[in-house]
Amino acid sequence: MRLIGKNVVIYGAGASGISAYGLAREKGAKAIVYDDDENARGATHSKSVFDGADLVVLSPGVDGGKDFLLDARLENVQVISELALASAYCDAEQIAVTGTNGKTTTTLLINAVLTRAGLHAHALGNIGTPFSSIADKLDATEIAVVEASSFQLENSAGFSPDIAVILNVEPDHLSRHKTMQNYQNAKANIFRYQSESDKLVYNADDERVCEMVQEAISEKIPFSTKKVVSNGAYISSGFACYKGQPIVALEDVDFAGDELQNVLATVAVCMEKGISAFCTASAITDFAKPKYRRTLSAIVNGVKIYNDSKATNVSSCKSALGCVCECALILGGQLGSEDFDPFFENLPSNVKYIATVGENADEILHSARKVGYKDIDRYGDLQSALNGAYDEAVKRCADTVLFSPASKSFDEYESYAERGKKFDECVVKLRLSK
Prior knowledge:
Elements: E1 7-11, H1 15-26, E2 30-34, E3 55-58, H2 67-74, E4 78-81, H3 82-88, E5 93-98, H4 103-116, E6 120-125, E7 142-147, H5 150-153, E8 163-166, H6 174-177, H7 180-188, E9 199-203, H8 207-212, E10 219-224, E11 233-236, E12 239-242, E13 245-249, H9 260-272, H10 277-286, E14 295-300, E15 303-307, H11 314-321, E16 327-331, H12 341-345, E17 351-356, H13 361-370, E18 376-378, H14 382-395, E19 400-403, H15 416-433
Helix pairs in contact: 4-9, 4-10, 14-15
């Protein structure tokens, strides 16, 4: 990709957009940043900048389906993602990870193993450090481990990681993608432009994923938590195995249930990279999961309290429920972010009580009542929901309180992280009262 003298518009003045602007300028482009928000600093707000543009680079938060972007495409203006721009200027090996749930953890896990092995690996992308901020600084001896969201993978024609990982695909972000097919198409861009010499690590237990990867021409390497896949990663006799070789004992890792997808995907990638089983196992065993992903906040009088604020959708909540015993569950967040009817129609038996809180609390109650579920109460704030869930856990002899909202956080909080911090503060107050 040659940008010298080209008119490039960077759409979005967030961290990714500013990084893409810097990269475009370094490569000789006449770049300018546009943002819809008139309060965005360092950006123009006039759509006239798109007239005469040779290239438009979209930040992840920008919906590429806007009318004036469609008009630009009709004028043969190339519209690409920040991810695609960064990848085009990166000489390092690229490992990209996507999925509805588990992207961040798996990205960090792969990065931890590679680093333990003495390789120069960098965790980038949706994880927090924009790929374009460092892409052209990496050389061929280094590895970019990129977390790729569906937003980043949109408009990423030509993106071709050396190893692609697709963990799972469940309904999410449909307010942006409109249909499940559009969402799947965005995810498929992680492998759609790979060559036959590239590798694709995928979840053989996920029907959507299996259907999607049929079009891939790269070497397919499956993983499964449910069956033995002789040409990939799987579980056998209490070990995560790869092609017949035991790699790491599951009793030594802080993962369970569906979370083992993260472990198996990491094992597959690192075995393909030629990392030793000992190094892989030691790094996975030592790994500490990122905050607010079923992390233990406290044990109060024998009751474990887990903070899973990152569970912003129903499928992530179900995954967390598969990792705990009998529990009192705390649900709720942004209105309309999830459909709870299927959740209550197939409610796991280990859920003994539900406390609901947030903007969608009434919506959750309505879904529960449809199927006659009665062990549920609505609370006015997070502290009272935690207190109520704890008391019910004790009364029902459940050993766990799980805060796994299954909803976006934007009813009251700027992010799942802010919500998670607030929950931890509530846990401190609960401990002091008990």
